[in-house]
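Worked example 2:
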Amino acid sequence: MGDNSETMLVDAINMIRAQVGDQVKVVASTKHFLQSSFMLYIVPIIGLLIGALIGESVGKRASLGIDPSLMSALTAVAFLVVTFILIRLATMRLKREAFMPRIIAKQAG
């Protein structure tokens, strides 16, 4: 938040060369917002569920002496961690500017 409840501090691409103190109109891409949300929230949950299902299946079929529920929990956490690592590696290659909001106009103030 900014100086009061009506202002907000946001990193954005300054397309119009606005100055500090200017009131501006900021736009963000809905497509990029939804893609980011999916990658950060849904993909890890999918990884967690896949890990749990694989762990339970392996725990029931293999005679490792480990409870299938414990095996399910361990592989679920392992898949979750691997998913976060893969997301981190994938996002390092993306251009930050593609996902940043843009300042498109000055507001009358």
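The helical segments are 30-61, 68-92. The chain has one domain: 13-106.
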